[in-house]
Amino acid sequence: MHPIVEREQLSPNVTRLVVEAPRIAKVRRPGQFVIVRKGPGSERIPLTIADNDPDTGTITLVIQAIGRSTTELTSMQVGESISDIAGPLGSETHLVRSGHAVCVGGGVGTAVLLPIVRALSAVGVHVTSVIGGRSKDWVILERELSELGDVVTCTDDGSYGRHGFVTEALKDLLEAGGVDAVYAIGPVPMMRAVSEMTLPYNVPTTVSLNAIMVDGTGMCGGCRVTIDGETKYACVDGPEFDAHKVNFRELSDRLTTYRTFEQQAMDKLGACATTEVKA
Amino acid sequence: MTAPESHAPADNGALAPSKPASNKERMLIERVAMPEQPGAVRAHNFGEVNQGLTYQLAMLEAERCIQCPKPFCVDGCPVRVNIPRFIKFLRDGEIAQAAESLLDDNALPCVTGRVCPQETQCEQVCVRNKKGNSVAIGYLERYVADWAQANMDKLPKFEPALTGKKVGIVGSGPAGLTAAGELAKRGHDVTVFEAFHAPGGVLIYGIPEFRLPKDIVQAEVERLKGMGVKLELNSVVGRTYTIPELREEYDALFLAVGAGLPVFMNVPGENFKGVYSANEYLTRVNLMGAWNPDSQTPILHGQRVAVVGGGNVAMDAVRTGRRLGAAEATIVYRRSATELPARAEEVHHAKDEGVRFEYQVAPVEVLADENRWVTGLKCVRMELGEPDASGRRRPKPIPGSEFVIECDLVVVAIGTKANPLLTGSAPELKVNEYGYLLADEYGMTSMPGVFAGGDIVRGAATVILAMGDGKRSAVAIDSWLNGAWPPPPESGAKKPEKEAAVAGN
User: What is the DSSP letter of B50?
Assistant: First the structure.
C-alpha cells in the first residue's frame, strides 16, 4: 500500500499527489513512469513520475482528471492509500548536455516536463520553458519552472501572460535562433504542432507519448506506436521518442479506442465526481 | 468450481462400483467422460467448462489403472508425478494419502489437472492406450487436487527445518511457483517477485476463467504462502531491481519471467482500432476482469471476431470472444487441422461452442473503415508443401486466392518471444540469438548461482514444461545452496530429453 502524504489542487482538474513508494523514489530517472492501480477492480493507468525524494521515500504524481480512473485517483485524500504502484517503467529521457533547450508543456504535460527541466538545468543547460493553458487558472508549476530557467507563459484567452498558443511563442524562439533541443509534452495535437514547427528549423525534438497501456512492461503491445515506419512500444522503447519520426495521426486515433466506454464510465460516476473536480 | 469437499458417495444414493477382482476385469471398464457444461450454454458464460468427476466416476476411473510395475506414465510426466501411487491410494479409499502423495510430486496439481496436455504426455504412454483408452490421469489428478484444496486441514502440517538460505525467484508463473514450493519444502527462505499486482503469471492473466478458475490459482498461491513463500508484487525486475542487486541480497536466484513479448503479423493495418495481441485481449479479460461489465478496464466486444493462430492461446482467445458476445468467432490458421498445436480438448470444446475454423489461410492485411475501425481480415489461401524444420508441412500462399473474412475484431495469437527488459539489466547473462537465456543442464545461467527455466529459456511452451523446469532447477538450487555441486545424477535435476514444445500454454 502507498499512503498519500500530500495533496494539492494545481488547476481546476489537475491534482498533485505525493505518495510513499520508497523503492521507486530511490531508483527512478527523469522521463520514467509508473503504473498505478487505485484498488481492487480499478484500472491500471500509466502516470509519469513528476518528482521523487529518495530521503522521504516519496514520489510525486500530477494527475489530470479526464476519466473515471483519474477522477477517482484525484479524489483521494491525504492518509488514504493507493493499492498498487509498479515501476519505474520506461526509458529515461535522453538529455542534451549543453546549450539552449526549449521545453514546451501543455496542460498536465507541464508536470511531466518539470523533472526534465530540472535535470537539464542541473547539468548547466540553459532552459526556456514555454507553458500554457486555456486561461490563468489552468497554468501550473510556473513558479517551480522559473527557479530553473526562463519561463514564457501563454493562455488561450489572454487572461495571463502571452495571448495565444505555446507554438507561437516557440516559433519566436526558433526564429531568434540558438535552440539546440526541444522537449514537448502535452496533448497530442500540441506535440504534433510543435513537431511540425521545429522540423524546418532542424532542431532535435523529443515528445513523450501517452499511449494506452495495460502492463507497462512490453507484454500487451497495446501501446504500440509507429516511429519512422516501425512499430515500437511506448512502455519500453519510450515513452519519449524523436518527434519528427512519430506517426501522430495513428497515435491520436488509437487513443480514441475506448472513448464510448470512457464516456459511459464517467456517466456512472455521476454528479458527485463533477462536484469533486470543481471543488 | 466444483471442488469435492467431502469424498464420499454423492447424494444420488448410488454406491461406489464393486471392486474388480483382477486386471482382466479392470480392462473391461470403459474410460469415464468428464461432466461438462453443454456447449450452447457455456458459450455465453465464463463458468468452468469441465465440472470435475463425481465420487462414483473418480472411483470407477481409479479402478482402471492396472498398476504397472514399470509405469511409463511417470516418465511421460515432466514433473514425474508418481501416478500409480496416488491412484492406488484413491482406489483404496485413502484420499488424504493420495493428496499427500500428489502434492509431494507436484506443487500445482489443481492447475495441471486442468491445463496439461495429458494426451501427449502421461496418457499417451499409458499401456491402456495401446488397446482402447488410457486411464484418465488428468481427471483423477484434478479430483484429488481439488479435494486437497478444500481439505487442507486434513493434511499434515508442513514444517521443514529452516536453512536460513535466501532464494529470490523472478516471476510468479508456473515455473516460479513450482520452484518456490520445492525450495520452501527444503527449508529455504523464498521470495517471489512479480511485475503484476496479482501472482500467477500466465495462470492469472492468460488462461481464462472457464478453463482455470482464478480462485483455484489463488488458493494454490495461498497454500505456497502457508509454506513460508513470500511475494513481492508490482516489482518489475530489470526496472525496479536489477539482477546484480538481487544477486547480492539472495544466495541464489531463479529467473522464470516467461516469454512475454507478443509477436504481431507484420501486415498493413495492424495498428487499426480493433486489433489486439492475444496477451492484451486475455489480460484485459482475465487479470483485469473486463468480462464483468462492472469492471473499470475496457474491452472491445466484437460481433465477429477473427483469431489468428492455432495454439492453446488462440483457442482461449476465440472462446473468450464468443463468451463476450461474438455471433461469429473464427480461428484463422495457416496449416491444416492435423497440425493444430492446441490441446485436443480445447479444439473439441471450441467447436462445441460454435467456433469456426478456417484452415490453410494466412492474413495479408487488416481492413478498416474511414474511422480506422477494423472491418475485415484479408487473407490468402495456403497449400502445404514439404515438411519444415519442425516436421510440419510448410504452408505456401496460393497466388490469386485472396479473400476477406469480415470481422470487427482481430486477435493475434501467433506466439510470443523473449522480453529483453530483464536480460537487458544484466549484460553478463548470456542469451541466444532470439534473446532466450542460456542455461546448462542444471538450469544454471552464465552467472553463478543464477538459474533460469520456463519460457525464458525454452521459448513459448506449456505450463507443465515450465513446471518441470521449476522443479528440476529447485533441486539443483538446493544442491548449490548446500555446497553439493554438481547435483547427484539421480536427483532428478538433469534436464530431460528434448520435449516437443507446443505453442501456447
Answer: B
Q: A86 and B372: CB-CB below 8 Å?
A: no
Alpha-carbon gap, residue B462 to B468, rounded angstroms: 10
Q: Does the CA dihedral A34-B218-B456-B261 come out positive or negative?
A: negative
Q: What is the CATH number of the domain that holds B130?
A: 1.10.1060.10
**B289 and B247 in a common domain:** no
Phi, psi (deg, nearest 5) at residue B117: -80, 75
Residues 203-222 (A) with a CB less than 8 A from some CB of B: 214-222
Whether residue B498 lies inside any domain: the answer is: no
Architecture of the domain defined by A2-89: Beta Barrel (2.40)
Residue A87 contacts B, CB cutoff 8 Å: yes
- Rounded (10°) CA dihedral B399, B400, B405, B406: 150
pLDDT less than 50: residues of chain A: 271-279
In chain B, which stretches have pLDDT less than 50? 1-3, 10-15, 492-505
Q: Are residues B208 and B277 in the same domain?
A: no
Single-letter code of the amino acid located at B304: R
Cα distances (Å, whole numbers) of residue A140 to A44, A107, B130, B364:
25, 7, 76, 48
Collapse the DSSP code of A161 into the 3-class scheme (helix H, G, I; strand E, B; otherwise coil) and give the result. Answer: coil
Classify residue B143: in a domain, yes or no.
Answer: yes
Percent of chain B with pLDDT over 90: 81
Domain extent, residue B33, equals 23-154
Residue B335 C-alpha cell reads as: 496449416
Residue A211: φ, ψ to 5°: -70, 165
Q: Do A220 and B280 touch (CB under 8 A)?
A: yes
Q: Residues B460, B395: one domain?
A: no
Would you put residue B276 in left (φ > 0), alpha (ψ -120 to 50) or beta? beta
Q: How far is B377 from chain A (nearest CA, A)?
A: 19
Contacts of A261 in chain B (CB under 8 A): 298
CATH tag for A93-201 (out of 1.20.1250.20, 3.40.50.2300, 3.40.50.10190, 3.40.50.80): 3.40.50.80
Query: What's the confidence (pLDDT) of residue A121?
Result: 95
B432 touches chain A (CB under 8 A): no
Q: What is the ipTM for the molecules in this complex?
A: 0.91
The reply to whether B14 falls in a domain is no
Q: Is A224 on the interface with B (CB under 8 A)?
A: yes
**A215 neighbourhood in chain B, CB within 8 Å:** 195-196, 283
Do B107 and B236 lie in a common domain?
Answer: no
Q: Would an 8 Å CB–CB cutoff place B196 in contact with chain A? A: yes
- For B267, name the nearest residue in chain A, comparing CA atoms only: A231
Contacts (Cβ under 8 Å, ≥6 apart) of B313: B206, B278, B282, B413, B503, B504, B505
